[in-house]
Amino acid sequence: MRGLTVKIRHFSLFIFLILFLCGCSTPTSLGSGGRNAANQLHKPYLVLISIDGFRWDYPDLYPTPAIDRIAGRGMKAEAMQPAFPTLTFPNHYSIATGMLPAHHGLVANEFPDEKTGNWYNYKTRSSVQDGSWYLAEPIWVSAEKQGMVTAAYFFVGTEADVRDVRPTHWRKFDRDISGEQRVTQVLEWLAEPAAARPHLITLYFEDVDDYAHWYGPGSPESIEAIRRVDDQIGQLLDGIETLPIAEDVYIVLVSDHGQALYQQQKPVFILDQHVVLDGARMVEGGPWVFIHLDQRDDTRVMEIRDTINRAWNCGRALLPGDAPESWAVGDSPRLPDIIVQADPGCAVISSSAQHHKITPGDHGWPPDMLEMRGVFMASGPGIAAGTRIGIIQVTDVYPLMMKILGLEYPESIDGDLDRLPAMLETQPN
């Protein structure tokens, strides 16, 4: 009997490791364990769809019949205002937590840890799966801790063990997995028996952002990417309508930021032609350069800032504390020593060798640039059809989702449900 017990334990460990390595399902004692608690069984279902780089005005410029269905059936904001910086990882995690980047920890796509000096890099799996980088609790962790099953087909933070919890079902990001495959899996999750059915599911599409980077927003290739993703969302909506729970499903559609073109007549500002960058690490993307000095030197910081500003008329160098209040940059120690921010349409790079950072289309310009705005739409049983509201903040999505799912959340967040005047007509049980 003892030998059988040991074999069972070894087999269980083997199964757990296989599930973890494939990123399929890793219930933990701190999460739901893959089963909805009794008080969660009758809650609504929420599918959070993110279309990376989907600018606020795209539905008015290009055919998007499926996205229009969501807007027509529910609530549509004029636009969603991103947080600084207007990059993918900071804004996605703001959507998930209701917190600004300086408060949730992801202040950029790459940044150093204030204590160890180690660097977070959004392209490194060891970074994105390390929960210690994520300083705020995302909605799926709160849900799991409250006994609600969740699932993620990609979303920033869902691969990480934030506070030792992941979604019950999650996937390692893989751009080779088609949108159709992702949608099929979401529909399969929604068709699970009630006890195991996820009440919160995230679904992420990167094509629109990719093709706008590669070819520019408004290019035939980027418009085709919009059409393709809209078709995939249409597949999702059609599939949900066939399910017995269709009338209990909310759809929340967001994007992290918009996209814009460079002004071709404006020269690229090259930093090392004006300042010495020895002993500094640069993080850059075309519209911005973040300068992290190996050794903090206030005199040198101000000299670099002032030299850049004297030489450049299409942007400015800022200390985090110099940034406009509307940017809400904050004071996180993970922020760069110097923010070099190009004006809308202008470009800055650290050296000529970084010219490849300037792509046909881009984001990362100031958050108050019109083209940096994203979208927000929501439909479901408690949202009046045809509701139209003004511009909301990226942090406002989280409290709305928590309200839909009837989950408890911290009182101290940056988002504000009161900015959404169209309140839910019905409350979750």
Notes on the structure:
With 429 residues, the chain is an alpha/beta fold. The chain folds into two domains: 30-261 and 369-419, Alkaline Phosphatase, subunit A (3-Layer(aba) Sandwich); 269-359, Gyrase A, domain 2, CATH 3.30.1360. Helix content is 29%, strand content 17%. It is built from twelve helices and 17 strands. It has helices spanning 2-22, 58-61, 65-73, 88-97, 101-104, 125-128, 139-145, 179-190, 207-215, 220-241, 298-311, 397-405, and strands at 45-51, 75-81, 110-112, 119-121, 150-153, 200-205, 249-254, 260-261, 269-270, 280-284, 288-293, 315-318, 338-342, 348-349, 361-362, 376-379, 387-393. A seven-stranded mixed β-sheet has the order 5-6-1-7-16-2-17, with helices on both faces. A four-stranded antiparallel β-sheet has the order 10-11-13-12, covered by helices on one side. Strands 3-4 form a two-stranded antiparallel sheet. Strand 3 and strand 4 (119-121) form a beta hairpin. The longest helix is centred in the middle third of the chain and has 22 residues, at 220-241. It is globular and about 65 Å long.
- What proportion of the residues is helical, as a percent range? 25-40%
- In which order are the strands of the major sheet placed? 5-6-1-7-16-2-17
Separation of the first and last Cα atoms: 47 Å
Per the CATH scheme, the topology name of the largest domain is Alkaline Phosphatase, subunit A
Shape: globular
